[in-house]
Amino acid sequence: MDNPPNSDKLGVLTTPLSRRGWPTWLVYSVAALGLIYILNPTLGILEFLPDNLPIVGNLDEGAAFMMIWYGLVEFFEGRKYRPQ
Predict the structure, then answer these.
(1) How far apart are CA 70 and CA 74, in angstroms?
(2) Where are the alpha helices (DSSP H) in 1-84?
């Protein structure tokens, strides 16, 4: 029996966090922190998990990219839901 395609599968990644109750300013602040973390020249000042640890060392960068992603989703998709 085939399952019908579920358009909600990517909803976790494409729904603005403001639609889930997050304040818009907080979403943008978290995205800015993620961007600062990614742009850090790896001086060890902001490195939470050292990159020389196999697999685990890249989790902090992955989390930072997700923070940036949700900021971009908020910027582009969140406009549709805000009052004009």
Answers:
(1) 6
(2) 11-14, 24-39, 59-77
Tens-digit pLDDT profile for residues 55-69 = 777 788 889 999 999
Residue 56, CA distances (Å) to 8, 41, 44, 72 in order: 29, 19, 16, 25
CB 50 within 8 A of CB 57: yes
d(CA 8, CA 6): 5
pLDDT score, position 80 = 82
Q: Does residue 6 carry a pLDDT above 60? A: no
Q: Residue 55: left if φ>0, alpha if ψ -120 to 50, beta else—which one?
A: left
- CA pair distance 14, 54, nearest whole angstrom: 30
